[in-house]
Amino acid sequence: MAFFIGRDRESRRAYGFNEVALVPGDVTMNPDEVDISWKLGKLKFEIPFLAAAMDGVVDTKFAVKMGRLGGLAVLNLDGIQARYDNPKEVLLKVASAPKGKATQMVQEFYKKPIKMKLIAKRIREMKKHNIRTAVSTIPQNALKYGKIAQDAGCDIFVIQSTVTTVKHISTKYDALDFRKFCSSMKIPVIIGNCVTYKAALDLMEAGAAGLLVGVGPGAACTTRGVLGIGVPQVTATVDCAAARDYYYKKSKKYVSIITDGGMDTGGDICKAFASGADAVMIGSAFAKSKEAPGKGYHWGMATPHWNLPRGTRIYVGTSGTLEELLYGPATTDDGTQNLVGALRTSMGSVGARDIKQMQLTELIIAPAIKSEGKIFQKAQRIGMGK
After folding, report:
1. According to the model, what pLDDT value does residue 299 have?
2. Is 313 considered catalytic here?
3. Which CATH architecture has domain 14-385?
4. Span 331-338, average pLDDT
5. Residue in 221, 240, 244, 270 annotated catalytic
6. Would you call 270 a catalytic residue per the annotation?
7. Domain spans, the chain
8. Among 83, 122, 313, 344, the one annotated catalytic
9. What is the pTM of this model?
10. Each residue of 274-286: pLDDT tens digit?
11. Buried/exposed code over 209-220 (b: 16+ C-beta within 10 A; e: otherwise)
């Protein structure tokens, strides 16, 4: 349904996590008996959580821990891990940089060229621990890094940029042929980011095994402020999931939808799945873990852009181990810990046996969902009133 925003100009309403709520089911389930596993092609994972390819969130040690806990961490090949032999030193310098100079310092550190030998080295560092590995790069570098990553034993290759489309027009350089690239790779390729039905459908037809959904919702991302573009995550996920369902009916190939960014709490994550997601990619929530290399800081992938940075270094602090953030026990009351437990409990409350049933949960427009009856929490700045 469209609304007039001015003379002869219509716009449709889009919704974010704070504007909707899940309706409890007529039948409920034991949370311990719901199935939260998900698949990417033939690969199966115990939990539908991916750690974002951000240098302050994922290094090789974090990836190993995430893999052992049943999830998947994505290593950024365009970042510090593939530029420096000892990335830990650089990460500590970024974390200790003065607030006003953080972006400038990040830009400076990312000027050092990528060392191709480090790509294979980092993948081998993860693979020797017998976990599933994933790496990410921008479309311009996919051809250079794809074969190296695959030959090193990588399980999943991610191509990611602010806005990714199959059709890209440029007279200055050759655009990546996604169809040709995906068909040449022997491992699944996840492509992102997109937020529209048509762009999602095009990427599926080009051979993507999974899609990252989200433009600008991340805590460290400033794209929506710098460029003014983006679609709130509930609407973006619903639209891209609709493309997935249409494509599956047409081709019998299932392409996983991964909602990427904008989820601060377990409640947001549950709403992403009810909107149609098969998995979620998270940055800031995992940046709070003791295992995160950023020591409580993280920054967006577009932060180091030399001419127009679209991210900033933010401080989220350290609130617990990765295992505590995923599985609990939670020591906070704000929904930022025991994310797996939150998903299981929500699925049990709506009567969803698995993720596919969770995607059918009734969503209602409910802008008062976080404020109704919470006057004391707001006044005392506790719980949902923080």
Report:
1. 79
2. yes
3. Alpha-Beta Barrel (3.20)
4. 86
5. 221
6. no
7. 14-385
8. 313
9. 0.94
10. 999 999 999 999 9
11. bbbbbbbbbbbb
